[in-house]
Design brief:
The chain has about 325 residues and is an all-alpha fold. Helix content is about 70%, strand content about 0%. The protein has a two-stranded antiparallel ribbon. It comes from Streptomyces roseicoloratus. It is found in: Cell membrane.
């Protein structure tokens, strides 16, 4: 009697079928497709269409009637004194709001980086201005900077300074608008700086302390060099925000012209005035593209400066 070993069933092929292999290749693109679809619909298409409209004379009442102008809308901007005024106001308000904002944020982050009681409360309180509505914050500041009954003028009167017309004066109105931006964004940037400070190795501070460096010298020689990429990021983001500033100057007095003499009209307000005040959609599109190119220029300059600085440090 002979025994035969039972035949083993053939092992199933581990190679996936063609449909599964195709899905494995396509699935990563399917997962990211919603983002690119939304970006193309609400980001890329408006950008390209705005560039297209900027080459035509288009009025809001008759958007279907388009007259070819080429670069006429751009040359008209160069000859418009209000465009240059809004550009100068944007730069001035940007400097008045960005520089104090980042300096104060850096100082607050340095204080919160030490062990303090109630650190969680202070960190949460830092974000409250950022979470506040732009409209609510601007309306409150408009009352604070009132000429006759404003709290700011009342405090100035206590030290012998006469009432300041914060809504009519050029410098005064720009300082008032900038203070709203500073109040809203200082805490946000402070938390960004705080996160950057906590990523700096603690051994560097211990070595500096052993060498006899005070806290002030540690801040300048350890903290600031370690925060250089973070500072560059906040400078770029704050510059972009200053270029696009719209809500604060619009609601400060409720005028799209930025005051009686356009004294605090930014590029965002100028765009809104041309497009929805004077119904010149073609010129408004040209202003939007000028703002876009200005942002690219600022970001490019910051990138070049950062790259040169990193090369110099690498060559030391």
């Amino acid at each position: 009697m002979t025994l035969t070993a039972p035949t083993r069933p053939l092992a199933p092929s581990r190679r996936p079928p063609a449909a599964r292999r195709a899905w494995q290749k396509v699935s990563p693109y399917a997962y990211i497709a919603p983002f690119f679809t939304l970006f193309a619909a609400f980001g890329l298409f408006p950008l390209v269409y705005t560039a297209f409209v900027s080459l035509y004379r288009v009025e809001l009442q008759t958007p279907g009637d388009m007259e070819w102008r080429g670069l006429g809308n751009y040359t008209a901007l160069l000859g418009d004194s209000f465009f240059w005024l809004s550009l100068r106001n944007t730069f001035t308000i940007g400097v008045l709001s960005t520089v104090p904002q980042l300096v104060m944020a850096l100082g607050l982050a340095h204080l919160l980086n030490y062990k303090l009681r109630g650190r969680t409360f202070f960190r949460t309180a830092m974000l409250l201005p950022y979470a506040t509505s732009v409209a609510a914050a601007t309306l409150v500041f408009a009352q604070l900077f009132g000429r006759d009954f404003g709290l700011v003028n009342y405090v100035l009167g206590l030290v012998g300074i006469g009432p300041v017309d914060w809504q009519t004066g050029t410098t005064a109105s720009q300082i008032a608008v900038s203070s709203i931006v500073v109040w809203r964004w200082t805490g946000y940037n402070a938390l960004i700086y705080l996160a950057g400070m906590q990523s700096i190795p603690h051994e560097l501070y211990e070595a500096a302390e052993m060498d006899g460096a005070s806290r002030l010298r540690q801040f300048f020689h350890v903290t600031l060099p370690g925060l250089r990429p973070t500072i560059l990021f906040t400078v770029v983001v704050s510059t972009i925000g200053a270029t696009q500033l719209f809500g604060e100057p619009l609601l400060f007095e409720g005028s799209i012209s930025g005051g009686i003499s356009h004294q605090y009209q930014t590029l965002g307000l100028y765009l809104y005035e041309q497009g929805w005040g004077f119904f010149h959609l073609g010129r408004a599109a040209a202003i939007a593209w000028v703002m876009f190119l200005l942002i690219l220029l600022v970001v490019g300059v910051n990138a070049v400066i950062a790259r040169r600085r990193s090369r110099k440090e690498a060559g030391r």
